[in-house]
Amino acid sequence: MTRGIVNRILPFSSVDGPGNRTAIFLQGCNFNCLYCHNPETISDCLHCGKCIEECPYGALTLENNKVIWNKTLCKKCDKCLEVCPNNSSPKAISMNIDEVLKEINKTKVFISGITVSGGECTLQCDFLTSLFKEVKKMGLTCFVDTNGSTPLYNQKELIEVMDMAMVDLKSYNPKEHKILTGMDNKVVLENIKYLAGINKLYEVRTVIVPKVLNNHYTVDMTSKLIASLNPNIRYKIIKYRPIGVRTDMIDSYTPSDEMMEALKNIAKENGCKNIILV
Ligand code: SF4
Ligand code: SF4
């Protein structure tokens, strides 16, 4: 049976798509964003064992050269994440579809659907597609939160079962996007156009990072693109916040409310009808 590497499952989330949702974070990402807010989801665990001795509660052990996480003993202090030199987590586990469904069943009556995020969830496309096929049978909606780097127009099976996607457009400038993430934004832009064309684009997201990015240009160009595709697609403009994120690779600060309002006005003047500031 198809298996996925799951970083964690959040039973309830109100910020990962419409309504109350169960959010599932898959391990592994092909971007390496300077301001990554989930750096422990980037890489697969190398089982180097470095985190074992740092766990104050004895929740990590080495068995057959593999780090084993004891969920019952874990107190969620995240000391293991702080010391991992590999942007990984010993708490990411391999799960089959039935095991994930068992978790979703616990929240099923309280949620309208699931959102699968990451890391970059579309890198585990077969697992994602199989999961969505089963979740749809439960009468729940299936959303994807993606960095947009996987050509979704080539993943017809996934697209068929996926209700909608939320796509990050971190920078409109391909060179700047590459400096920020490690990859240019060609496929991201193609995905946004493709998903809008089939009415499966729920939201485009941009994080505003003063000093580092040309935020004005990105919001201007992105909002023009959204307005040309469908002005009702939501544009979420997000403040960079140096809390719980990798801060050693970036020199920035949280943008002011005035700056955010000015960016919102640009998007509004360009024709976007559904803009939210976060
Ligand atoms: S989580 Fe990091 S530190 Fe721990 S075993 Fe894996 S790679 Fe090593
Ligand atoms: S989060 Fe859990 S496994 Fe990691 S160090 Fe803390 S108690 Fe140990």
Distance between the termini: 39 Å
Q: What characteristic shape results from the CA principal axes?
A: globular
Radius of gyration in whole Å, from Cα? 19 Å
Number of strands: 11
CATH architecture of the largest domain: Alpha-Beta Barrel
Mean pLDDT: 96
- Give the H and E element order: EEEEHEHEHEHEHHEHEHE
Overall CATH class of the largest domain? Alpha Beta
Please, could you describe this protein's structure?
- With 278 residues, the chain is an alpha/beta fold.
- The protein has two domains: 3-41 and 93-277, TIM Barrel; 52-83, no CATH class.
- The chain is built from eight helices and eleven strands.
- The chain is globular and about 60 Å long.
- The mean pLDDT is 96.
- One iron/sulfur cluster binds at residues 55, 57, 59-60, 69, 74-80.
Task: Chart the SSEs and their pairings.
Layout: E1 3-13, E2 21-26, E3 60-63, E4 66-69, H1 79-83, E5 93-96, H2 97-107, E6 113-117, H3 125-137, E7 141-146, H4 156-161, E8 164-168, H5 174-181, H6 186-197, E9 201-208, H7 215-229, E10 234-239, H8 257-269, E11 275-277
Parallel strand pairs: 2-6, 6-7, 7-8, 8-9, 9-10, 10-11
Antiparallel strand pairs: 1-2, 1-5, 3-4
Helix pairs in contact: 2-3, 7-8
The chain binds iron/sulfur cluster (SF4) (2 copies).
Brief account:
It contains 8 helices and 11 strands. It is α/β, with parallel strands linked by helices and 278 residues long. Residues 55, 57, 59-60, 69, 74-80 line the site of one iron/sulfur cluster.
